[in-house]
Amino acid sequence: MPKVVWFTNLYFHPAWGTTEAGRSDPINDTGQVDRLNAIIRQIATERPAVVLVDLASHVAAIPGFDTDQSARPDGVHLSPEASRAMADWYGPQIVAAAREG
Questions:
Q1: Which of 21, 24, 57, 68 is most exposed, with the fewest beta carbons within 10 Å of its own?
Q2: Torsion (CA) 28, 29, 30, 36 in degrees, nearest 10
Q3: Rounded to whole angstroms, what are the CA distances from 38 to 2, 52, 84?
Q4: Taking every pair of C-alpha atoms in the chain, what is the biggest distance, in angstroms?
């Protein structure tokens, strides 16, 4: 059976690098991201074809990552360097999920 690999989401910091840093915006609401991740975890638990890769928990365990603007210059996407570092962690998980299928 083919597998779907679903990643949890990181908190957003969309105002990094702009003059609007610190502004109040619903996208900055960490509670919304926590709720979305809870839904993703629930779906993964209920559906055997879904493999969860908990990126949010992984990066939360890396001291200072959530405040490191060099890792996510626009506050949303990983930089090329951070992407390579994360790929070393999640790449094997994706391969393992594909092999289960």
A1: 24
A2: -110
A3: 23, 11, 26
A4: 49
Q: How many domains does the chain contain in total? A: 1
- CB 79, CB 70: distance < 8 Å: yes
Backbone CA torsion sign across 68, 71, 72, 74: positive
Nearest to 31 by CA among 14, 12, 50: 12
The CA distance from 7 to 25, in Å, is 24
Q: Which residues pair with 4 in a beta bridge?
A: 50
In this prediction the pTM is 0.81
Q: What are phi and psi of 53, to 5 degrees?
A: -115, 110
Residues 90, 55: contact at Cβ < 8 Å? Answer: yes
Domain hosting 56: range is 4-100
Instruction: Tell me the CB-side half-sphere exposure of residue 33, using CA atoms within 13 A.
Output: 17
